[in-house]
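Batch manifest, entry 17 of 40.
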Amino acid sequence: MRLAALALASLVASQAPMQCASEPAHEERRWETPGEALYELAQQFRARGEREAWRATLEYLVARYPNSREARMARADLDAARADAGAPR
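Output type: structure tokens
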């Protein structure tokens, strides 16, 4: 009886669909990463003219999530701002 139950359980388990954890496509996600949220917050500060808050948020993003895609964008934004500040007018 035990052998039959074990065989039945094995058979049922072998027929179950195997699913691997995977990330949904960017546009299908219902959440955002911390880097995305911080970068968006920085952009809101910039749009309102709050340059110091914009800069501080981008610097925090780079320090806290240095390997994120948003950190790369934040570095580029900060570098461009520094270049603009040093450019003669």
